[in-house]
Every structure is written in C-alpha cells, then in structure tokens.
Amino acid sequence: MTDYLALAQQLATQIQPGAAERDAGRILPYAQLDLIRHSGLGAARVPCELGGGDVSQLQVAQIFIALGKADPSVAQALFPHFATVEHLRLIASPEQQRLYLGAFAERRLSSGAIAERSGTFRGEIHTRLERRGEGLVLNGSKFYSTGCLFADLLKIQAVDEDGNAVYVMLPADTPGIVMLDDWDGMGQRVTASGSTLLENVPVRPEQVIPLAQWYQRRNYIGASAQLIHCAIDIGIGLAALDDTVLWARTGSRPVRESGVDQARNDPYILHTLGDLAARIHGAEALVEKAAGAVDLAARSQLQGLAEGAELEAILARSSIAVAEAKIASTRAALHVCERLYEVGGAATTQSRYNFDRHWRNARTHTTHDALAYKYKVIGDYLLNGKAPPIAFTY
Questions:
Q1: Which of these, 62, 33, 66, 59, lies nearest to 44 by C-alpha position?
Q2: Per-residue confidence (pLDDT) for residue 355, from 0 to 100
Q3: For residue 92, which of 51, 25, 33, 47 has the smallest C-alpha distance?
Q4: What per-residue confidence (pLDDT) applies to 119?
Q5: pLDDT for 261
Q6: 128-212 is classed in which CATH architecture?
Q7: Cα-flanking dihedrals φ and ψ of residue 153, to 5°?
Q8: Which residues pair with 308 in a beta bridge?
Q9: Where are the alpha helices (DSSP H) in the chain?
Q10: Domain boundary assignment for the chain
Q11: Which residues contact 94 (CB under 8 A, 6 or more apart)?
C-alpha cells in the first residue's frame, strides 16, 4: 500500500529546487504538477475501494506542510484537487463517485473554478447552467481558478435556472472553456489562479452535482479545506525559518558592539531564531491537533458514526479547532517571514535571493479568509455556545 506522506516528502525534494526562480520569473510549474499527477498522490484521500489511500486528515495536513515548504504555489495549485475529493465523497452520487474518484485513482488531477468578482458579497455565484434545446449549457466567468491550467477535470460552481447551486464536473478541454493566465497577485505568483471564461459550454446531466442542500446542512468540508490552507501557511513559515537559519550560519556578519566575532554567537540573533522557531512550530502543533478534530468529523459524517446533535457538536468543534489553527498559522507565518530580515540585515533584501517571496506568499495566501471572523466565531462559541456558520469557510 502506498505511503502517501512519504511520497509527498519525496516529491517535495524534487519540487523545491527552482522554486525561488519560478517565483521571480513567473514560470508556471507544469513539470512539478506533472510529477504529482504521475506519482498518484492525488488518490491519497480517495476511498480504498475506489483505488485510493483514504489517509487521515492529519496526513493530509502533513502532506501540504511538506509541499508548502517546498513550493507553496505548487501546494496551493494542488489544494482544489483535495477539496474536490471531499466534495465528491460527501455530495456526489455513487455513480459520480465511481467515475470521478476512480479517475483520480488513475492519476487524473482536478481543480476548481468557483469564485467570482461580481455581486455584492463574497461567494455570490452568477455563472448559469441553463437548458438549451435538449441539452444544458454553462455560461459565465470565474475570477479565481487556482490550478485549473494544470488540471484534467474542472469543478465549476454555478446556479441552475431555479437558482439552486450546483457543481459541474467537466474535462478541462471541453469546448467553450477558456482559461487565462492573468493572475497578477504579488505572491503565490505561479498558482495559475487566473480567470476562466465559460461560453455555451455543453453539459450532460450526469456531470451536474446538486449542491444547494449543503448550504443548510452542517458538514466537515469547510474545516478540511481550511486545514489545508493552514498547512500551506506552516510550510511557508518553515521555509522562511530554514532560510533564516542558513543565512545566520553562512551570510550574517556581527555588529561591532555585539562583543562576538561571529553572527552565530550574537545573543540577539539567537533570541530571534528561538522566537521564530517557537512561533512556527507551535502553530504547526496546533494545526496537527486540529487535524485530529477534522478527521473525527469526516469519519463521523462519511461513515455515519454519529448523527443528530452528536454529529452537529463534532462538526462544530472541528470548525472551531481549525479556526484556532488558522489564527496561529497566519500569525506565525507572517511573523517568521517578516523577522527574517532582522537576522539577515540589508544583504538579504537583494533580489537575487528572492527572500521576499516568503512574506509575499504568506501575505497573499493568508488573505483567503478574514481572520477577524475566526476570532469572532471562537469567542461566540466559547461564551455563548453558538456554533460557527454553515459555510465552506468554517
């Protein structure tokens, strides 16, 4: 049986070389995603009976920490595939699960075209699935399509003619789908998070997955997705810590008033490194702790191990655990990436080292969800016993 964590760690050693150069030159990591595709890592959470590994949520977090440390753009480009696996496991029909999860076991990768910039509120969807003659067509546009340029299958969110939310699973080469490499964020530069245009895209009924009921039913999917985001942030922070330690060992010079002849003996550099290590490793431990809560929630819901109020409580606790981890991973990643320069000094700002990519990546990736609402939700849960919102962000 495949050891998916060991596989991810091996892949990380192949992905890490050139990560800084790809960021600097905005070179999309097609070769790196192909390595992941052909390795079979995409089957890690596919059920065993469909050819996958059904690994724990802890292993998922550890997989993304390893990949995020190697290259967070590659890790984020892979994230939608793992999110799609969970959506299919919970929401899709048995026939759709056999078709699409089976494809993932056969080394296909998926991605998602979900978010749009239109509308008043975040999360509003205006892409339409409409009947045209005897068939269905999809029309609209997506602003964020992370990883879609690397994918074999796309999961596209839309609303049908009755206003009900749906997912549509389509091969990436379906006529009418145009994917643009127009993402210009300051960080996570090579995630292929560009636009997707949908013009009269033909859709078969069996490619449509009804989604609307899950807007009213609490589920583990949001917590599992947020857990991966936390893991990527931990990976970014660990990479920055490694670069800080290496620079302190080989590149830093002491200041005259330090009283030491090597920077590695400067008490303030040692103190700073201790602070950075404690921050990021503490956050890593909290992420791994949260993974246990998410795993219990996923197993309970998927396998019917709990129901009613008991299941609701398990799901709510997993969302709270991940919200706490999200706060810690966000703060720790940003802290490490910023304080790197206090150890390295002015020389580390030179563009040839591209150390600023760590902070740019952390700052860009951690804007995914409003951290202030994580604090609010935790406080409301502890003080008032109020469960988090039913949403794919909790």
A1: 59
A2: 95
A3: 47
A4: 66
A5: 82
A6: Beta Barrel (2.40)
A7: -125, 145
A8: none
A9: 4-15, 19-25, 30-39, 57-70, 72-91, 94-96, 102-105, 221-250, 267-302, 308-344, 356-365, 371-384
A10: 4-109, 128-212, 217-384
A11: none
Cα 378 to Cα 324: distance, rounded to the nearest angstrom: 7
334 contacts 93 by C-beta, under 8 angstroms: no
187 contacts 232 by C-beta, under 8 angstroms:
no
- Secondary structure (3-state) at 48: helix
Q: Which two tokens stand for residue 274?
A: 């201790």
Write the single-letter amino acid at 125: I
266-272-277-278 Cα dihedral, nearest 10 degrees: 120
CATH fold of the domain at 4-109 = Butyryl-Coa Dehydrogenase, subunit A; domain 1 (1.10.540)
Q: How far apart are CA 2 and CA 17, in angstroms?
A: 25
- Tokens linked to 239: 């990479």
Q: Which residues contact 248 (CB under 8 A, 6 or more apart)?
A: 263, 264, 269, 273, 343, 344
Tokens of 133: 């003659």
Tell me the whole-structure pTM to 2 decimals. 0.96
Q: Which residues of the chain have pLDDT under 70?
A: 119
Q: What's at 225, amino acid-wise?
A: A
How many other β-carbons are positioned within 10 Å of the β-carbon of residue 96? Answer: 17
Would you say the CATH fold of 217-384 matches that of 128-212?
no
CATH H-level, domain 217-384: superfamily: Butyryl-CoA Dehydrogenase, subunit A, domain 3 (1.20.140.10)
- What three-state secondary structure class fits 29? coil
Which long-range contacts link 385-393 to residues 24+ away (Cβ below 8 Å)?
387/218, 387/312, 387/316, 387/319, 388/316, 388/319, 388/320, 388/323, 390/215, 390/216, 390/217, 390/218, 390/219, 391/123, 391/222, 392/221, 392/222, 392/225, 393/222, 393/225, 393/226, 393/369
Answer whether 133's CB lies under 8 Å from 203's CB: no
Q: What tens digit of pLDDT does each residue of 273-295 get?
A: 999 999 999 999 999 999 999 99
User: How far is CA 159 from each of CA 68, 166, 179, rounded to the nearest angstrom?
Assistant: 33, 6, 20
Cα separation, 156 vs 179, in Å, equals: 12
Looking at this protein, which amino acid is placed at residue 314? Answer: I
Q: Which residue has the tokens 């700073």?
A: 272
Q: How far apart are CA 336 and CA 333, in angstroms?
A: 5
The HSE-up count of residue 38 (CA atoms within 13 Å, CB side) is: 5
